TrEMBL record:
The chain crosses the membrane at residues 12-33, 45-64, 76-93, 99-115, 136-155, 161-181, 202-221, 233-254, 266-285, 291-316, 328-352, 358-378. It is found in: Cell membrane. Keywords: Cell membrane, Membrane, Transmembrane, Transmembrane helix, Transport. GO terms for molecular function: cytidine transmembrane transporter activity; uridine transmembrane transporter activity. It comes from the Bacteria. Pfam families: MFS_1_like (PF12832). This is PPP family 3-phenylpropionic acid transporter. It is a multi-pass membrane protein.
């Protein structure tokens, strides 16, 4: 490995660390800021936080088209990183809830380009130069986990407004790092019409998407409501950060060693197990356990998210015909991290106002177990397909 090649890999790792450090120290504590400092209701918080995922789904293909048209992916990446960090500071200047909604949409529009563009640039680099993309992206998980604890401690000692300055500073430093990334031409648009026509012939795909909506939507919505749950149980802002550190920090080890489990038990079995862990976790939180038990159970996120992500993604890739795999993966991401996230974040906020945070987590648990039922159905269809294929042979 040349000195330049080694420097580029370190630069990629630093880029991912900084961008996820910014995200990790900001978004998990943003709902706490809205409730404690601004005085928003649960419904207002849910609406505000649910807007981003929908906007990101709509604007992400547009950034891909811009990268493809201009052939300046690196410049687009740097622009969106700088603008995302800068727009985050805008919340400190606003008092009107309507303008906060506008700002949330703008921030999400720029943020939507960061991860797909940087992932594409990194993937092109490792395919050309060799190496493991996962070793570069792993620093993102480390940055996210560390930021939740660091910014939680700072917010407790200083003020919750510190999260906005930490967010902006991290992303501005990230943009400087991005100047040294290799120049690559990337695009991440997809043929939606052709892909849907092919995927509609696969009932298992539609059912798996529905299960992903029900299982992964609450996982993402938990990032909004975990801080409110923790404070409702008597925890501190610093405690929220520590809880996120334990939860996010547990994902990387399980994700790293998910391969042997998948090979031994199969993709759908691992996905089912991960979904069950999530469901039991949400139901447990709805029973209002002690802070100590919340800390102990946060590591279950590694078993759920750390296993669900690689197993589900691989199942979608294997299920879809090769010519529409990109569309299938994009739809999977849009349904789980986009629409599912938005739906449960929005509904969870209104249930918070109506019946309290424990009812919000009861909703998450019931929805997840419904998703488990759909995964069982998909698994049975898969087993019947294999049996029919064997009988023909």
């Amino acid at each position: 490995m040349t000195k330049q090649n080694r420097f580029t890999r370190v630069n990629f790792s630093l880029f991912f660390y900084l961008v996820f450090f910014g995200f990790g120290g900001f978004f998990p504590l943003l709902s706490v800021y809205f409730k404690n400092e601004v005085g928003l209701t649960g419904g207002q918080i849910g609406t505000l936080m649910s807007l981003g995922p929908v906007v990101m789904v709509l604007t992400q293909p547009l950034w891909g088209m811009l990268c493809d048209y201009t052939r300046r992916s690196n410049e687009v990446l740097i622009l969106t990183v700088v603008m995302t960090g800068t727009l985050g500071l805008g919340y400190l200047l606003l008092e009107s809830y309507a303008w906060m909604l506008v700002l949330a949409a703008l921030l999400a529009a720029f943020q939507s380009a960061i991860i797909p563009t940087s992932d594409s640039i990194a993937m092109k680099f490792v395919r050309r130069e060799g190496g493991d993309y996962g070793n570069l992206r792993l620093w993102g998980a480390i940055g996210f986990a560390g930021a939740t604890w660091v910014m939680g401690e700072l917010a407790e000692r200083l003020d919750l407004t510190v999260i906005f300055f930490g967010f902006a500073l991290s992303l501005w430093l990230c943009a400087l790092t991005g100047l040294k990334l290799p120049k690559e031409e990337v695009a991440f648009d997809f043929d939606l019409r052709r892909g849907l026509a092919r995927l509609a012939r696969l009932p298992r795909f539609g059912m798996f998407l529905a299960a992903t909506f029900l299982v992964f939507g609450p996982v993402h919505a938990n990032n909004v409501y975990f801080g409110l749950l923790f404070q409702d149980l008597g925890g501190t802002v610093a405690g929220v950060g520590l809880g996120f550190l334990l939860a996010a920090g547990s994902e990387a080890p399980f994700m790293r060693f998910s391969g042997p489990w998948i090979r031994k038990w199969g993709l759908l079995s691992v996905t089912l197990f991960a979904a069950l862990v999530s469901g039991f976790r949400w139901i447990f939180y709805s029973l209002e356990p002690s802070i100590a038990w919340v800390y102990l159970t946060t590591v279950s996120q590694g078993l759920s998210v750390g296993l669900f992500i690689p197993a589900a993604l691989q199942y979608v890739r294997d299920l879809a015909p090769s010519e529409v795999q990109t569309t299938a993966i994009a739809l999977y991401a849009a349904v789980g991290t986009g629409l599912g996230n938005s739906f449960f974040t929005l509904l969870g906020g209104y249930i918070l106002d109506w019946a309290g945070i424990s009812a919000t987590y009861l909703l998450f648990g019931l929805a997840t177990f419904t998703g488990v039922g759909m995964l069982v159905w998909v698994k049975r269809l898969e087993e019947r397909r294999v049996e029919n294929a064997e009988s023909v042979v």
